[in-house]
Amino acid sequence: MSRGVPAVEDEEEVAEGEQSVSAPVTQEEPERKLTHEEFDPKGTLALILTYFAVLAVMWVFMYFVEFLGNDLIVVG
Amino acid sequence: MSVEQETFVDRYPQEAELVRRAFLVAFTALGLGALFGIIQALHRTNVLRFIPSTDYYTVLTAHGVLMVIVFTIFYLVGLYQWAITRSLDRSPTNINFTRAWLTLMTVGSALTGITILLGFVDQVGISADVLFTFYAPLQAHPLFYTGLVVFIIGTWLAGVDWFRTWLHWKQDNPDERIPLQTFMVLTSMIMWYVATIGVAVATLFFLLPWSLGFIETVNPLLTRTLFWFFGHPVVYFWLLPAYMLWYTVLPKLAGGRLFSDPLARVVFVLFVLLSTPVGIHHQYVDPGIAEGFKFIAMTNTMFLLLPSLLTAFTVVASMEHGARQRGGEGLFGWLTVLPWRDPAFTGMALAGLMFAAGGFSGMINAGMNINYLIHNTIWVPGHFHLTVGTAVALTFMAGTYWLWPQLTNRRIYSRPIGLLQVVMWFGGMALMSNSMHVAGLYGVPRRTAEPEYAGFDFNTAFGSISELNIQLAVGGTLLFVSTLLFLGNLGLSMGNPKVEGLGQSLPEPLSGASDSPRVLDNMKLWAGIALLLVALAYVLPLGAIIQNGGLFGMGGDAYPVSVLGAFDGLDAVRELLGVVR
Description:
The complex is a heterodimer of chains A (76) and B (581). Chain A has one domain. Helices cover 39% and strands 0% of the residues of chain A. Chain A has helices at residues 12-15, 42-67. Chain A is elongated. The N and C termini of chain A lie far apart (67 Å). Chain B has a single domain (8-580), classed as Up-down Bundle (Cytochrome C Oxidase, Chain A), CATH 1.20.210. Chain B contains 18 helices and no strands. In chain B, helix 8 runs antiparallel to helix 12 (343-366). Chains A and B meet through helix 1 and helix 2 of A and helix 3, helix 8, helix 11, helix 12 and helix 13 of B.
């Protein structure tokens, strides 16, 4: 049994296999351990590129929504 | 195999009690705030009206203050007290001091809250219908400002308490890096100290003496600028506890580990440095501030996208790590193996998704020229209901499903209801916020009970205003029901029996603190640079405002939203104190 409430930085072994207290009891445990070297966040890159693509499309869309129907507003 | 360990309440019963007390105030404010929210949503859209439009500003002020001051900041102090205690594995130096600041904050909130609510009772003659932004010349009863001052002093003492606990820990552990959660607490509080200089000066030197009748007038542009000096960093004060949950708890829920502790530290340092010298971006249409200062504020604001994008990467990568450990494959296939049936996980993940959408509308707000298109329209509330209203609020609720059992040794009453609740919040907000953004583009104003004057029609490019109104009302109703489900679920949890084995640990990051330079932990350095940047951004504009409009303004009357037109303010305070005695 671990001593109390460990800091994030230590006691990695305690966390192993421990299920979230808010998860269903039937939730399956992680099936493998991946170290920093073994893990390559390609999925994250794909999601972030998708987000940037959405942003770019939204900017173009905004041009049509706002500027084409209205007079330009000039600063100064 | 799960390892049974003590819960937070087993190990720190007194601290857990204080965390629960802070959460109780937060959730009371959330319930009341939600009630005022649904009243507004139905009133504005003309779906159901049972208050006179003249009471709308009382409802709006109560909704704003209860949600973004009381709910968010009480949740923050509860969460931070938990975080600093557990990450240092140490009690506060003097728990009575901790009790004192929490009591002070509660008394201050009650004073301000009651003063606002008295606005419904015309006979009392006390009101504070000045909205969350309390711009002069709108004037509130002195008790409104007094409560605010007491509340802020309480938060300052909370910071003192946490810094003291850390310094004592440091004496015992001179060579260790600051644990990540403590680092987050300390950096947030440095930001808060810098930010609250503005609101403290505005309230103590101008608005409170003015409401008491000690000074005749104030310079509205000065107090407004001081408000936004505080008003922008406060949004990060709401956000940083959500970030703490995303960085330290969400990876655990996903079944993985935080991708990078150093990146998390860099993000929090960037918020210390950049969150305050940007407030003027709320004042792009204010006359009296030179365009150049506004441009500097815009540039600083765009830099703030950096920590948010760093967060998007780090948090999503941590989730992906969990998914890969769960056997997830493919470029997007890993998303399907995440623990979507865990309301704490799903709530936080959906909150993060909505924050990404809020990032887009935030960029529109921050752009000096594009801002003119949406300024003072309902687009802006649409934006901040994505950020504070979902990224923050939904994360807090989701985090509670995970944290509450460790504070009480009781399981949550119903996990499926929790899951339904977080999904309902997401759906309700998608509807409400979408309709607000679109209506804002058509020029529908914010902050009014009567958005459409008689004989005037908004020109819509597609759809109609009544469709948008229905969308807003349905979304608002879903959000209200979701809040009731959350509060009901939590309340019923207190009837669950106490059990053992609810303790949770947090996994070590993939890349730990030792991978980052020690200078990141130098709090004095970051506080010093933050103050320097604030001075650079604010000394000249504030000087110009005072030079042009005078320290106390150039005359004009207070707008009568207070009793002070009827009788002397000091007498009112004395009378009220007399009643209390």
